[in-house]
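Subject: Probable tRNA sulfurtransferase structure
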Amino acid sequence: MKYSEIMVRYGELSTKGKNRKSFIMQLAQNVKQALSDFPEIKIHAERDRMHLLLNGVDGQLVIPKLAKIFGIQNFSPSVRVEKDVQVIKDAVQEIMKEIYTGKETFKIIAKRSDHTFELNSNELNQALGNAVIDIFPDIQAQMKKPDIPLRVEIRRDGTYLSYETIKGAGGLPVGTSGKGMLMLSGGIDSPVAGYFAMKRGVEIEAVHFASPPYTSEQALQKAKDLTVKLTPYVGKIDFIEVPFTEIQEEIKRTVPQGYWMTITRRMMLRLTDEIRKIRHGLIILNGESLGQVASQTLQSMVAINEVTNTPIIRPVATMDKLEIIEVAEKIDTFDLSIQPFEDCCTIFAPPQPKTRPQLEKVHHYEERLDIDGLIERALSGLKIETIRPETTIQQSEEFSDLL
Ligand code: ATP
Ligand code: MG
């Protein structure tokens, strides 16, 4: 049968007291954004649930998009029929014919929110259970954990039937926790860090450092492609490309090799923090993971972190590489991340970076740099682009062909 609506159950946000209303409004906005390819769908957000009226849109197209939106615990596609006992019986039989394979147990779970309806919930359970037994005399009804829980809800505008509960992405609606700047390289870790941040409600903007001609056009494209993979959770993400060539050349020219990495990272962090201020972000996010490489020893983190008081959240800091890879595969960024286009850090990587950089030396070498000037010039060359999900891009292209 054709779905007429999808009923969405909220996740954790139902426990958020007085913030609840703004959480629900944000979720409704995110759902609207994610489903912008289907303007026919109407969204009704209520206190406990959200109803998506499909208005003819194929539910199967909507389900995979909905499954990625944070803040949704689960959802049930449902069929709407008239509020007439015979019609409801027919619909129940039709659904069971479609899904019953001869083995499953079932239960009718009727609920009557329209109390003017002629049967109460018990009577409905009875009548509809019998309707199922009429067509499948051997079927077993089971009250506890039935294989097929067939929900029937009599509402003001009709009867809604559903038998499936699809797991949502959990988390909090993106945007309810404010905005963070994600330092996005082309590697495995930073996209995963971005995913986890969004899962906890943080809206992200991607900040990427590029050093052409030392880094290629492909390396930049890879970072943008990774951003595309993160957009289904939010609808769109602003991608900020930072020109980093001059800074890397300057560091290479004036600083001893052992300190290139530390000072490069400090410059990246200073710049990200300036961009954060301009873009009204609250925090910085990166993909650092403890002990992975020289820049990620605790001593390095301390030396790099010294340039800002802004909170830096490192969602994958304590995860093992294999655990990070598992998530990267799940969110489909892994294959892109392992493409061999070198980013600015690999190309300027000294043979032996200091794993325990000393702060006095860092300060001493940085005196040789015109830090303010370098930052100012990099900021004047920012390129900002709004990145959207793949399907939307294809559709808008098709659309422009028609014009
Ligand atoms: P990733 O897999 O995310 O690249 P990594 O294990 O390769 O991480 P590093 O290269 O040391 O580790 O980078 C640590 C973090 O610094 C990255 O996760 C990212 O947040 C940030 N970073 C590194 N290079 C860039 C870049 N070119 N642009 C933006 N951020 C960067
Ligand atoms: Mg990297």
